[in-house]
Write a sequence for this structure.
């Protein structure tokens, strides 16, 4: 058919074009889903920074609290007796634990968390001390959430929460994903081949 | 997602008021508490401030809550600082239920809950929408469906096909309990045994000997009369005081146990009188109860997990208890999801295979080949039990302040070894063409059966000790309340075996769709 102003013929849209590559023979209904490549992926590296920043807030709060506690004890006892020393020692221990979990743990967790989309399931492998891997078949995904806190948003990171019908694993969280990627995974998880009936 | 997204819509403006109302209700407790603890005027001064903040929060929540109806799903976005975007496929929504209190009616709005058939949490709760908006949502969700009700699902794969009953008899009795069975159930039920044991221990230590004196004297007098020349126990030697106290306690304990058993039988009678489980097609109907008559009907396809239990007393009487966990009641929240579905509160062991087949027709318990744990599992179980014994011994030594506490270590070690041997002997897993089975426990023996179609999530895990021993554990998650108290959670498997099992379960679960109803 020609355009109204007599321009060149425009072939109808669904005719395969000769000069296109193998892509054109792909059925229109199913897009190739590169997201489900069966390879293992790590989280986004920026998630480490995001977690550290978030943890830093907690660390700041804890530090202030400990400083106040120490200040009060020192002020009242003038550093005489066992009490202020115990409080100080305890504060140092608590502070170092919190600092470790804020600064060191995110990097460890990042290194040890992997996810994979293959066949028909989402697999998540994680664990620093205790290794575990959870696998959710696509058909068992009830619905999904993508959540972002303010820090995550400024870095473009998001968390994907997958809801299943299970009891212990009713919610499975994959945090530290790039927003775009999280959405692609979500689309792949929810899409079903054909009719979804009950 | 090439087409442009549907237009975004907001909740009804009166949502601000309802959200605020909800928060006021939450804060009211604090306000009243504050008024009681401090002073009324201080509360009156700060209250507007607090409510002002609550109002701002409610306003922000209303402003940031948006939803849109796409072709296959509803997308809900909310939050300002912490944002979330939820996608709920229409296929997962079974019902749109409304909750309306008088205030809702006044404004012509409703709280809409998008519910699955599962009786679990709703997929989404929208507060509040106008009735028109609710109707539009309903139309969009249920467009193309025959009815918006709870339609029974046709079998979608050969694996889910229901076994055609051999007899077209409209009602096949799967299980029934007579008076004798209920009596046995009462005897076997171990309610209260722990309480008795603990009470005896406490009494022994706490009550002064004075209290036992009359009983002791009475028993001594009785036995004394019997041990006089010509009596029954003529040659019974004189025994020291504490011995009589021990006898007194033992006699009391026996009386208590018997009394408890009698009460237990009474309880079983009240709860399970006239128990009958009848199968009609795919529906299992259980009738039981003396005062409150319970009639629970559940289709077999809603069984998520089948559980068999046999405690020590069960085994003495050669009985078992069989129950099932279900999910997928109507969205109104039937009590069926809270209560386990009793297949047989008590039944003869010889009936077990038939009962299991009655509930899960694809599973033949007689043909199951149990696989053992890893070879080195026994050693690990022994070491763990030994650790507990050591801790107990240390605790006993600390409490009694003597080294004799450690003497518990010798029998303790023996028990640890016995425990390890029996643990390994009675723990195992098995696969049938349609289900996975796991049994564990040597004192209380339990077996769980999960059909592949009901597997939700498969989890493999390994503690550092597991990793050192090259072992791993496999756990299967199912829908249902988890109240049965046992699940497929296999530990101490060889690493490769665990991986293979997990893969097999996933492959089988993936091949079968999960249907709520």
């Amino acid at each position: 058919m020609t355009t109204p102003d007599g321009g060149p013929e425009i072939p109808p849209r669904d005719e395969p074009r000769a000069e296109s590559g193998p892509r054109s023979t792909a059925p229109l209904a199913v897009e190739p889903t590169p997201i489900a490549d069966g390879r293992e992926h790590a989280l986004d590296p920026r998630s480490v920074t995001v977690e550290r920043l978030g943890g830093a807030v907690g660390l700041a709060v804890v530090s202030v609290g400990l400083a106040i506690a120490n200040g009060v004890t020192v002020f009242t006892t003038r550093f005489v007796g066992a009490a202020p020393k115990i409080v100080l020692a305890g504060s140092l221990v608590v502070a170092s634990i919190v600092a470790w979990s804020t600064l060191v743990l995110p990097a460890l967790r990042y290194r040890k968390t992997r996810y994979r989309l293959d066949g028909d399931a989402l697999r998540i492998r994680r664990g620093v001390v205790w290794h575990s891997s959870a696998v959710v078949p696509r058909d068992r995904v009830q619905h999904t959430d993508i959540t972002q806190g303010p820090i995550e948003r400024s870095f473009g990171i998001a968390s994907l929460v997958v809801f299943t019908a299970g009891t212990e694993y009713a919610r499975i969280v994959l945090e530290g994903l790039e927003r775009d990627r999280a959405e692609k995974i979500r689309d792949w998880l929810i899409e079903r081949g054909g009719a979804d009936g009950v | 997602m090439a087409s442009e997204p549907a237009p975004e819509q907001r909740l009804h403006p009166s949502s601000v008021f309802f959200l605020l109302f909800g928060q006021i209700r939450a804060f009211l407790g604090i306000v009243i508490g504050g008024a009681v603890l401090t002073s009324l005027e201080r509360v009156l001064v700060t209250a507007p401030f607090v409510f002002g903040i609550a109002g701002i929060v409610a306003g922000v929540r209303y402003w940031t809550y948006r939803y849109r109806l796409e072709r296959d799903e509803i997308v809900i976005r909310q939050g300002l600082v912490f944002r979330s975007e939820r996608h709920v496929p229409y296929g997962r929504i079974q019902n749109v239920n409304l909750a309306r209190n008088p205030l809702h009616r006044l404004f012509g709005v409703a709280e809409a809950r998008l519910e699955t058939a599962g009786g679990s949490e709703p997929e989404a709760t929208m507060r509040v929408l106008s009735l028109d908006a609710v109707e539009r949502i309903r139309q969009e969700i249920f467009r193309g469906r025959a009815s918006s009700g709870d339609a029974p699902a046709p079998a979608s794969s050969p694996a889910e096909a229901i076994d055609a009953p051999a007899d077209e008899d409209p009602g096949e009795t799967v299980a029934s309990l007579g008076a004798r069975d209920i009596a046995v159930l009462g005897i076997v039920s171990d309610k209260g045994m722990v309480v008795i044991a603990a009470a005896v221990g406490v009494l022994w230590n706490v009550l002064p000997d004075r209290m036992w004196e009359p009983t002791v004297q009475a028993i001594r007098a009785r036995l004394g009369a019997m041990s006089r020349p010509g009596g029954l126990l003529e040659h019974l030697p004189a025994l020291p005081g504490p011995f009589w106290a021990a006898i007194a306690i033992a006699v009391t304990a026996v009386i208590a146990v018997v009394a408890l058993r009698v009460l237990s039988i009474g309880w079983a009678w009240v709860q399970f009188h006239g128990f009958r489980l009848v199968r009609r097609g795919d529906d299992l109907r259980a009738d039981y109860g003396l005062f409150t008559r319970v009639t629970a009907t559940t289709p077999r396809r809603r069984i998520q997990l089948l559980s068999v239990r046999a405690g020590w007393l069960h085994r003495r009487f050669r009985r078992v208890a069989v129950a099932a966990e279900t999910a997928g009641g109507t969205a109104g929240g039937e009590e069926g999801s809270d209560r386990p579905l009793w297949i047989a509160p008590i039944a003869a062991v010889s009936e077990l295979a038939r009962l299991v087949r009655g509930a899960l027709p694809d599973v033949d318990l007689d043909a199951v080949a149990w696989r053992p744990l890893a070879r080195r599992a026994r050693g690990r179980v022994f070491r763990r039990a030994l650790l507990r014994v050591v801790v107990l011994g240390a605790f006993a030594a600390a409490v009694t302040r003597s080294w004799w506490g450690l003497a518990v270590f010798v029998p303790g070690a023996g028990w640890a070894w016995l425990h390890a041997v029996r643990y390994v002997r009675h723990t195992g897993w098995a696969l049938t063409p349609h289900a996975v089975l796991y049994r564990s426990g040597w004192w209380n023996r339990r077996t769980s059966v999960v059909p592949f179609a009901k597997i939700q999530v498969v989890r493999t895990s390994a503690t550092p000790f597991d990793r050192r021993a090259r072992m791993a554990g496999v756990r299967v998650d199912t829908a249902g309340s988890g109240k049965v108290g046992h699940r497929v959670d296999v530990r101490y498997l060889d690493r490769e075996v665990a991986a293979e099992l997990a893969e097999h379960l996933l492959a089988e679960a993936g091949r079968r769709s999960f249907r709520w109803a």
Strands of chain A lie at 40-42, 114-118, 121-126, 131-137, 141-148, 157-164, 171-178. Chain A has four helices and seven strands. Chain A touches chain B at residues 119-121, 127, 129-140, 142-150, 153, 163-170, 172, 186-187, 190, 192, 196-198 (CB under 8 Å).
